[in-house]
Amino acid sequence: MKKIEAIIRLSKFEEVRDALADIGVRFFTFKDVKGYGQETGPRIVYRGSTYDAGFIGRVQLDILCEDEKVDAIIEAILSSARTGEIGDGKISVYPVEEVIRIRNGERGAEAL
Question: For residues 23 and 80, is the Cβ–Cβ distance under 8 A?
């Protein structure tokens, strides 16, 4: 099993969600995150001085899946989240040792 962590633009969230649904991804979690990178953040003017806020809002998706589905999920995210501009985001893949469904104690792939 794997955990896919994708950080994407907020404006691309719905496209990515739809692309994942099209390939049968039934469940994932997401949260608002902020980052600092090559893309510059918004500038704030306060009392005549300009400040670089530096942090850019993004959405982080966490997807647990079976090993066989990793490539399809990555391709769905890449094709729906890419704009070709700096700041499109990152995808990371991590091994997962165990998944347990709290409701009934199912383990492994059945718990996904």
Answer: no
